[in-house]
Amino acid sequence: MTRSLFQKITLGIAGATTLAIGLCILVIPHQFYASYGIVLADDASLLSELRAPGAGLAVLGALMLWGIWNSAMRQVAQVAALTVYIAFPAGRLVGLLVDGMPSGGILGALAFEAGIAVLCLLAFRLGSRASPLQGADTRAPVA
């Protein structure tokens, strides 16, 4: 498998997962959170606070998927994937340390997100040519 294909597959997994989760939070938050054993109240403010980041996740997921087909957007898509899949497990680990042990569903989500994070780190690793955290400009600096 070529590196480019591995990167596209990784973007596909990350993007489809992020888009699906974001859309579920945006459109069916009660059902989504019930799958983790969380019962949401019918509080408009609470639902708004959940739907807003859900929309953000959906857009980031679409951006990751766009990067598969649009090479000009690939670097942005890779940064989006790395950001989401490093931040989510990190946030869950902070919660685990501060709040204690969450439900099994949340622990499963942590493991799944960490797995995608590992894929992203392998696919878009630092020091590689066209790394998302390095500029694409390879010209020598002007003195």
| Low confidence ranges | none
Q: Percentage of helical residues?
A: over 70%
Content-based structural category: mainly alpha
Strand count: 0
How far apart, in Å, are the first and last alpha carbons? 41 Å
Percent of residues in beta strands?
Answer: under 5%
Radius of gyration: 17 Å
Q: What's the tally of helices? A: 5
**How would you state the average pLDDT, rounded?**
90
Q: Biggest β-sheet, characterized?
A: none
Shape descriptor reads globular
- Written as H for each helix and E for each strand, in order along the chain, the element string is HHHHH
Describe the structure.
With 143 residues, the protein is mainly α. It has helices at 3-27, 29-34, 44-69, 74-99, 104-123. Helix 1 crosses helix 4 (74-99) and helix 4 packs antiparallel against helix 5 (104-123). The longest helix has 26 residues, at 44-69. 22% of the residues are buried.
